[in-house]
Queue: 2 jobs
Job 1
Amino acid sequence: MAWVRLLVFVFLIGFVSGCGSSRDAKVSAGDVSSLTVWHTYSAGSEEERVFEETVDRFRLANTDLSVEVVRVPFSQTVMQFITASQGGEAPDLIRVADSHLTQIGGVTVNGVPLLEDLRAHLTPAQASRFLPSTIKAMRMDNALLALPVSQSTMSLLYNPALFEQYGIAPPNADWTIDDFIETAQAFRGTGVDGISIPLRWTLWVMPFMSAYGGDLFDGEDAPRFAAPGMAEALDFARALEFELELVNSANQIDASKTKFSRGRAAMIIEGVWNIPDYHEAGIEVSQSLLPTHPETGLRMRPLNTIIGWGISTQSVNKPAAFELALWLSEDDAQQAFLERTLTLPSSTAVTNIALQSDDELVAGFVEQAEYSFSMPTKRGVQQIFLVIDTAIELVTGTDQDAQLTLEQAEEEMRAILRQ
Amino acid sequence: MTRSLILTLRSMAAFILLGVFASSAAAQSVAISPAEDLSDYRQIGVRVDVTGLANDQILEFVIDDQTPHTQILVTNVEGIERPPPGAALFKCMSDGLPMHQSETFTPLISASTEDVQCALSGFKTGQAYEVRAILRSSDGRVLSRTEPLKLITNVSDVRLLPPNTRPILYVLGSIFLSIITLLLGLRWWEAKSGRSQARNAYFYIGPAILALGLLTFYPIIYGIWLAFTDANQTHLGRSEFIGVQNFFEVFASSGLVQVSLFTLTWTVVNVVFHVVLGLGIALILNRQKLIGRGVYRTILLLPWAVPAYISVLAWQGLLQPEGLVNLFLGANANFLGEANSARISVTLVNIWLGVPFMMMSLAGAMKAIPTDMYEAADLDGVSRYDQFRHITFPNLKSTLVPLSLLSFIWTFNMFNTIYLLTRGGPYLGFGKPGATDIMVTYIYDVAFEYGDYGLAAAWSVVVFLLLLSFSVFYVKQTRATEAST
């Protein structure tokens, strides 16, 4: 008898299992009074605190809405968002970098893109508040996939105490790469490294490439890695490590930082986000624009990552999600981020204020952002890191000719972008 | 005469001025009307008819008489290309063509423009707004203003529906029912054939079989199905059957030989060292006279007890040019940065990780060998080597065969060690696997870096078939079943 009952139960389960979901029924209206936001700020960081305070103010101003904040790791944003979208569990709002957009932007589920085109939401008056370059970075295949909220770039940081101790002139904005090298060499024999740069990594080689050979992408967003001068940049990076022996932590990002934070390196090319760590380690940090190339006259330009807020196409309350995105990118919010976390703004007004700031680091990094470049927001462009990393490895590890290597790299990148 | 001439000239001048004013007043008249065809979700279409604009004037849309919305600058647009249809940040048209825009996304029109159409953005569905067009001079003076036009968009949101999970639930339900039916059938057959003692066994193994079916067999079957489709990140949920195309791509892949060779080398070297070192250490630990066996055993077990990813990350730090290994060696070697040293490093770390398991399992198996066999051998004067050869090894065979098979399969699929140490790098060729890529790490890249799920699934099927063939061959060759009985 028990077996008969079990059998009936099992069949019931089997029949019911197919009735759990129905597209015909159209999805429920969803809870329009709540928003879920995925952010990528580090746990317990000042950025997270400023963000939560900004969201709290939004909650107070919109008491009819509840906002749930969820932290996701920056490096896992793309996969988690794609997976959540496939399961119908995407958040309303998500913090994304332009590099994320190149991966999420081309993804569709059942023919629908994952991120909302914000052009229908944003008015021209609202758009005029943002730096055009930041808006451009948030666009892919004509759509506007996120509202820019900040920029993130690298600059030349130095330890003024070490320069003073050894009587060496500190960097300045008029420096050339030659001056940079001479100064680094002046530290030889002091027990302090002149420079500490992980030169086996694309992110740190890009500024040299831009000073030697100009833009990494042309006006049509096609790679130009093999342009005149680029190979010299790669050879120069190699020489810094092997011939000039100025860089001995070429393949380690963390080791470079550790050296600088322990006062064992005088200069480092680094992002603004690490400055709190150096302050915590008791290191006084000054900043200078990256140097120029003595012959081309071009300034070393680091990569500028633009970060913004995107809205999921699954959101049941897109107007409210957009209001929150606008709120998070308001000038007041950006000003708070700038003052408390040195986060570079996307707002034209806040940028202008920052350029006049008494804070040398704030003004300096905002100026450096003007001498930086963003990668085209195209599917596949993120592979540039693998392609240039491989080129660096071939040139430094196997002595392959730099020009030939960069020609191969350019061809590979073009093939990736074509796909 | 002079006076009449002056009067005539004055009247002519007045006539000319009046004419100018009259004409300019006519040019600055702006008329606004709805443009229904431009209305969309959160967008309201408006059309403005203008004539005789002058450069530097601004045509502005204001919402509810207070909120500035769009400012269109009248300027010389020669030399500025119109954006391709759909490419502009804001949907506006002048004289039926996409409107010019500045570098800062400001819409631009020429002074000769007569027809302006815009899809004004940012409106809520179902809510009425008053839109007014205002023409201003360059210094902001209002030259002309339309009456407010009451507009509304009723276009609702098109949003991504949650995926249709019904087919998946049907499949899972079918598997569930099939297994239950099978078990009931077997039970009925047992009962019919009179072997009543085993009847309840099906009830007991039912949950485990169901769990296996739903959590193991279904994903495997789905993975195999995926290998025959064009499943790709760009069109999730809309994959189509493409036959064996993905398998052709796998076998035509330029990286196949490289990644297969390293996978094989990596697996064989690891398994050999796991077995040899594990067996050697187990033999030492099995010696009765060894003092502090428990301590050694605990220490040797640590690599296995610590989560693998922590151990691997620790090794990653140790192997850096300024890490502890270089410090001991007095060198500045880039172990993980050079191809050959990276291959050796990942292999050594994985050997270090795998030996404790082998050692513990073999030590346990040695305990099960009756001691009287060794005592008899001692009495007969059999050497230690011959005791190992004729007593220990044959008795361990039933344990060694499945253990080495497991070790082979685990090592073949060992993702953590390589991914956390080198991520498959260093890369010594464009579009090719890295120097330390094994099949599973390469499959990960294909799936999650390139988003090609169908191709990655085909690679996985190849790996599955390879391991299955090896397992069958190995078990047959070693006659493991016979040995164990």
Note: Chain B touches chain A through 68 residues (CB under 8 Å).
Job 2
Amino acid sequence: MNRISDFISEEFLGHAAFMLLSSSSIDRYIRTAKSLSFASQLKQYLDLSIFTDDDLLKEADSLWRQILQKDKRDIPEIKLAILLPLAAEFASDKASNILLDIALQDRSPASWVSALARHLFNNRRTNIEFREEVKTLSIISFSSEMAQTANYDI
Amino acid sequence: MSWVNPHPNRSLHIEDYTGKPIENNIDADPSEEAIARSERSISPNRFIEKLVPPTGRYNCHGLVFANRRTNLGGPNSPIDLDDLLQRDRYRRIDARFRPQLGDIVIYRHESTGGIEHSGIVSFIDKIGKEAIVRVWSKWGALGEYEHQVNSCIESDYCNIEYWRLFA
């Protein structure tokens, strides 16, 4: 069976390596990774069930382990940066766990892809909804405190 | 090509921002394979010349503001570059005036307003009424290049500003 990253052409991988390694800011790195992920057409392969969500997560995990053994920024980082934005769209705990694993390891040469994982994890729908809930609860709690204070004043 | 500092005596405020020795912000070098693949994808139409080989020690902002000592603005070194420009007393050059050698070129994202790239004006020529500006900059973890001001990746989606230190 082909690995998922084998579906990324050599030419595309070279372009991706240039675009990601030439990034000087994390904002550009994240934007570039998302854009490369979209342009890689891996999403279409997923939609066509040529490989599954689980295959993609396994490959992401395998690439992450390769990165941890390296002392330089290398091709596995490029491949993982392309896969992660797709993984972040999966509604599964496994996807959350992989993103979190990567996000927590903040040392070179993994720091760029870690920052990408942190961004993707923070912006997962469940986390955004949770933050919104906390915000709403805070507002409700603040409002009721204010109401109580007002009552005391009276 | 020997290692030349294109513009010495740059920013002295780096440690004020990070609160730690600047050496802590050195990134890992890219691997030979990653460099080879990246360089093969650089378009020959971009009129660039490679000056210094890739290193993770510093990025474009590290070249411009910190004499190649550190990375600025990467995952381990968040920094407000606009604040740095103000604190180091750079002044933006009005578009009516021509850039000079040694001016700093800032590539600012046209929608987010964030600073995406920086370099130093290294060559100016004039063809007719057109000023030809070449810039010395480092491309992330890749090498240092001299290129026309509008022929790096960032020029495709950034506004270009010139900043200068006045005595």
Note: The first strand of chain B starts at residue 48 and ends at 52.
